[in-house]
Design brief:
- By secondary structure, the chain is mostly beta strands.
- It folds into two domains: 110 residues, Elongation Factor Tu (Ef-tu), domain 3 (Beta Barrel), CATH 2.40.30.60; 58 residues, SH3 type barrels.
- Strands 4-5-8-7-6-9 form a six-stranded antiparallel barrel.
- A hairpin with a 4-residue loop joins β11 and β12.
- It is elongated.
- About 11% of the residues have low confidence.
Length: 194
């Protein structure tokens, strides 16, 4: 149902401010990785991969690093036991990439790959209204939680209660980005007792 390109993860201690928005829930930049430590003598950096599309991080592609969104071009990348080893044009030594330690790696939203019909990016679902099949407002999507088998949609009700809805059939009836709405099939036990 959804693909992972994310806003800053909740464990972020960064003071990054939003860098613009393309729509109500459409951020300008999304996180695809976090740089860890330099590796070897060629200016490579270990990157924790935070995207479902690591194959698009190819030589010559532009990414943005850190709080200031420093524009860099990927010089090389290869798989590594801790994620990926990545190198950037103009940064050829361990000393030159040391400044990138613990920095987020971003892509611009306009550069995201197209998804198949019925698939959505996580950030597209944040802020959508959740309504039941009988048109009752359940709440607003606050977050998506990855559990391994399928995502869980965290919905915040008008009373402030958290409602967890599996993002799979039969719970999700329809997602309509134009209407800014997710229609769901509610079963007993999903909503907190009143």
């Amino acid at each position: 149902m959804s693909a992972r390109e994310t806003r800053l993860p909740d464990d972020s201690t960064s003071s990054i401010e939003p860098a613009g928005s393309l729509g109500k829930s459409e951020p300008a930049f999304l996180v695809v990785g976090k740089l860890r430590r330099s590796h070897g003598v060629q200016g490579e950096v270990v990157m924790k991969v935070l995207t479902d599309f690591p194959e698009r991080l190819q030589k010559g592609k532009q990414v943005y690093l850190g709080d200031k969104r420093l524009v860099v071009m990927i010089r090389s990348k290869r798989n590594h036991s801790e994620g990926m080893l990545i190198a950037f044009e103009g940064y050829e030594t361990p000393e030159s990439v040391a400044v990138f330690r613990n920095q987020w790696v971003f892509v611009h939203t306009r550069d995201l790959p197209k998804l198949d019909a019925g698939e959505f990016y996580h950030h597209q679902l944040i802020g959508l209204q959740v309504v039941s099949e009988d048109d009752r407002l359940i709440g607003v999507v606050e977050d998506l939680l990855e559990t391994g088998t399928h995502d869980i949609i965290l919905v915040r009700s008008e009373t402030g209660a958290e409602i967890l809805i599996p993002s799979s059939a039969p719970f999700i009836v329809n997602i309509d980005l134009d209407k800014h709405e997710i229609r769901v099939h509610m079963i007993p036990g999903l909503e907190p007792e009143a």
